[in-house]
Design a protein that fits this description.
Layout (H helix, E strand, L loop, with lengths): L1 H4 L15 H6 L10 H8 L4 H8 L1 H11 L9 E5 L2 E5 L2 E2 L5 E10 L11 E16 L2 E17 L3 E15 L9 E15 L9 E12 L3 E13 L9 E8 L2 E6 L12 E5 L2 E6 L19 H12 L2
Antiparallel strand pairs: 1-2, 2-4, 3-4, 4-5, 5-6, 6-7, 7-8, 8-9, 9-10, 10-11, 11-12, 12-13, 13-14
């Protein structure tokens, strides 16, 4: 569990307001399909509180790209620090050929290296980058940009987070496709939550997650989600959450995912699930950490994979 959780920098609870950057997108999306096992599994992999936090904690990755990783250009995007506030501004092309866009402001309320464990606030204003690609004789730009805010507050023992983030992307449809199709897409997360137990080391000890809100993508639609008392404890089960549940609602259907790692810990990361009150057995592949990797189509780009994916495509 520790290796998975290095990307999951803790926090997740109760609903956010409406009218922010995420709501602008979510209010336009269709209701997601939630009528089959395939539908339920797809959303179960993305809808738990720790998965949502991990997927939307893009600031840590982007800040690392701008100066904390080997080969990063220290001069682009332009960084300006003033006390606890760091502002990153695009409008330039770095030495790796990535054109940075927009701006991001990071306010850290606790000392230490940048981490989701800190009390901090991230504000995105069309912040991201684009890079040219060539495929099948065609040229274009792979692009991702973020809008909105995410914040973490609380004590060492208990953190609260709030997410209001919209992601816009464009580029090649699929990294493994040779068709050179391009697609424009968006994804959005409007969510609040809490996590107890973050005073233990990251990925160690027992953590209990709660959260609720809406998530969705332009292609797949929008769902309402709520996680209740999802317990993650690698000493109990390294492959899945130990207990708790996540409820997913859309289009008049309700799916409930019940985590059972404490009594049925399996390498295949199985959970129990029901649809509209009918118990339906096990689902495989529903782990308790960051969800799947990334294409520009289905999920509007799962962030960590998307960053690497753009580099691979750019070299075609």
């Amino acid at each position: 569990m520790r290796s998975r959780w290095l990307a999951v920098v803790a926090m997740s609870g109760l609903w956010v307001g409406c009218g922010g950057p995420a709501a602008e997108a979510l209010n336009k999306y269709k209701a997601a399909s939630l009528a089959s096992e395939t539908d339920v599994k797809e959303w179960a992999e993305r809808s738990s509180a720790p998965n949502i936090y991990a997927t939307t904690n893009v600031a840590v990755t982007l800040v690392t790209l701008t100066g904390g990783s080997e080969g990063a250009d220290p001069n682009c995007p332009v960084q300006k620090k003033d006390g606890k506030t760091t502002r990153l501004t695009g409008g330039c092309t770095d030495t790796n050929g990535m054109e940075w866009l927009g701006s991001m402001e990071l306010v850290i309320e606790e000392e230490g290296e940048i981490s989701g464990l800190q009390n901090a606030r991230y504000t995105y204003d069309n912040f991201g980058y684009q890079r040219p690609y060539t495929c099948g004789g065609k040229t274009g730009l792979n692009k991702i940009a973020f809008h909105g805010t995410s914040s973490v507050t609380g004590t060492k023992a208990k953190k609260e987070f709030a997410i209001d983030v919209r992601l816009e992307s464009s580029g090649l449809r699929d990294e493994d496709s040779e068709s050179c199709d391009t697609v424009n897409s968006s994804g959005a997360w409007e969510y609040k939550g809490t996590v107890d137990g973050v005073d233990s080391g990251l990925g160690e000890g027992r953590q209990t997650w709660n959260g609720s809100g809406r998530i969705g993508s332009e292609e797949r639609g929008v769902v309402e989600v709520a996680t209740k008392d999802e317990v993650v404890d690698g000493s109990v089960c390294d492959e899945e959450a130990a207990s708790g549940s996540t409820t997913i609602k859309s289009g008049g259907h309700t799916a409930v995912i019940t985590y059972d790692g404490a009594t049925d810990c399996e390498e295949a990361s199985t959970v129990q699930w029901s649809l509209d009150g009918k118990a339906s057995g096990e689902l495989e592949g529903v782990s308790c950490s960051a969800a799947s990797g990334p294409a520009f189509s289905a999920w509007g780009v799962a962030v960590l994979g998307a960053l690497g994916l753009m580099r691979r495509r750019a070299r075609r």
